[in-house]
Amino acid sequence: MAEARGWYSRGYLPHFDSPERIQHIVFRTADSLPPHLRPDMQDVRRFSETLDGLLDTGAGACPLAVNSAATTVEKALLHFDGERYRLLSWCVMPNHVHALLEQIEGARLAEIVKSWKAFTAAQINKETGAAGRFWARDYFDRFMRDEAHLAQTVAYIENNPVKAGLCHEPAQWRFSSARHRSTG
Length: 184
What we know:
Elements: E1 6-9, E2 14-17, E3 22-28, H1 44-56, H2 67-79, E4 85-92, E5 96-103, H3 109-128, E6 140-143, H4 147-163, H5 177-183
Antiparallel strand pairs: 1-2, 3-5, 3-6, 4-5
């Protein structure tokens, strides 16, 4: 079993790997932030706020707006739920993905995200005949400080399509835990 790494960086963003924490993960398509729109990553807090707003504008080709691609991502998120992690909330947006999860002992966060990205990129590129980088290199993660932060994050994730103007109610978005929760 892999040992949790705690705080670490791969040179881009800081990450926190711990099975004792619930994490909000955001990963995005490679073209979702053109170079002239990329925020300054020196201030991570300001970066995360800027990133959220920029991604919701729908920059890039938005390949996850295609139902088959979004379905591939959603199935990948759900595939190891209960085995490598407990998936608490998720949302597949046109150019990015939100996942709120609790790692299960022995599963590393970086390996979880890497498996999602590698599998879905290969599948979607195969289906579309595309080649090259599908996902942006890194991902953003934030651990939940307390129950209030957790509740706020679930609401944020499930309301993201509403905020971005893609639907009127969270449960209307096909690729989200809100839809599953409402039919539950």
